[in-house]
Amino acid sequence: MSAVRAGGVLIPAPFKSVEGYRGLDDVFDPDMNRKALEKTLLQATQDGVTVRAVLISNPHNPLGRCYPAETVREIARFCGRNNLHLISDEIFALSVYQNEQATNVTPFVSVLGAGLDECIDSHLVHVMYGMGKDFCATGLRLGVLHSTNEGLIAAVSSISVFGWVPYVVQDVWADMLEDEQFLGDFKLENRKVLAKHFTILRSFLDEHNIPYYSNVHAGVFVWVDLRRYLHANSAPEPATSAVDVNHDQEVKLFKRFLRAGVVVSQGSGFGTEELGWYRISFAVEEQALNVGIQRLGTCLKSIENDGWRIESCRSP
């Protein structure tokens, strides 16, 4: 959509090709981020692409983990040195919950509170937010852009009239945000429910010996490795990064899940560097979550029973 509206191009900053990369935890390491960004900027420059900004999702989507403050500052230093805008999408900022099995957990720190004054000029820092995720209200659409860049604000204001938020929606949100008692109770309850639903999904994954990124503690999803279901293996051994997976296989498995009555998002939609990873969301009613994982389990068992081939699968 960015290319259609503004002629912009999104360029992923890969980590696997960076020297010293060991695994997904390195996505949150300050030095690894600096190296990945420097390498990507150099390649883009050589390709004749002019880079204007760095965009991050914090908490990370799809890994479901918050960036440490020092990593945010290192990304900001990179932007400051290269006169690039830093755009932080913080739409899951309040959706942080407890996962007792996670290690090296860091609390959510917005770029607005990460102490960036010595890293980057403030007019280059922008935050995007929306009410749909943290407040479970995708129908009451309201987006927020925080920036001190007067030029950017003027440009956005000139086009925002085409997507104006209805006044009744603005009034509803104003009443909610001014109700401190409601906000406190809602955030507490939401974190409890997220932790409970994550535990339900984690138990299912552990029971079926399905690898997943375990240091998750934010967002409403889990990053799951389903590569072993894309090959005609004789035994359900977890695949390794050396296994070759193509896009057609990924799509076939996605469609098989659909026929089973469950949606599991393809990793390619999130810029994965290893096809075969999928994002499973648990932000649904508990009954719906249990039905969904039951259907998923039945479908995966069917794949195992038919010799690990991606064929048809019916929901129970």
TrEMBL record:
One Pfam family it belongs to: Aminotran_1_2
Keywords: Pyridoxal phosphate
Domain Aminotransferase class I/classII large: 33-296
GO BP annotations listed: amino acid metabolic process
Key word Hydrolase present: no
UniProt GO MF annotations: pyridoxal phosphate binding; transaminase activity
Keyword hit for Lipid metabolism: no
UniProt cross-references to InterPro entries, sorted A to Z: Aminotransferase_I/II_large (IPR004839), Ethylene_sulfur-biosynth (IPR050478), PyrdxlP-dep_Trfase (IPR015424), PyrdxlP-dep_Trfase_major (IPR015421), PyrdxlP-dep_Trfase_small (IPR015422)
Protein name: Aminotransferase class I/classII large domain-containing protein
Organism of this sequence: Neocucurbitaria cava
